[in-house]
Amino acid sequence: MYPIINLRCHKMDLHWYLRTLEEVVSRVLSSTFSIKASRLEGLTGVWVGDEKLTAVGIRVSQWIAYHGLALNVTIDLTPFQWIVPCGIQDRRVGSIKGLLGESLSSNGHGTTDIRHGDDNLRIDVTHKSLVKEFCEVFQVELCQKPIPMLELL
Known about the structure:
- It is a single chain.
- By secondary structure, this protein is α+β, with helices and mostly antiparallel strands.
- The protein is built from 4 helices and 6 strands, in the order E-H-E-E-E-E-E-H-H-H.
- Strands 1, 2, 3, 4, 5 and 6 form a 6-stranded mixed beta sheet that branches.
- A hairpin with a 2-residue loop joins strand 4 and strand 5.
- The chain is globular.
- The two termini are 25 Å apart.
């Protein structure tokens, strides 16, 4: 999620903005996946136990913030075994899919649900939840404008 937001209309405080982005993700994890996430003192990101699910990085110019966050939904975590992400030695990188596990593929009634569904569904639901929670937390309204096909060409 890479929001572009004028912090003059909210709060001109970069630490507040980082913590508020983390709050958006914590709400998504709780409301959509029933995952209890937290923040760790001195470390940016959203955590579940010792696993970092969200990396946050912002750029701000004249109080216009851009860049944002990456929430690991279904990512292959193998490459993270070869590096020390964010220079943090004693923690791991995690994902929603990894936390939910792959042992259950249905809700017991023969239909797939978002907690145990396919990757595309999980990504789509996460995206919608991120937008919803962002709008609620920042008290903004998302206005989408369709782009005509000719403009894309």
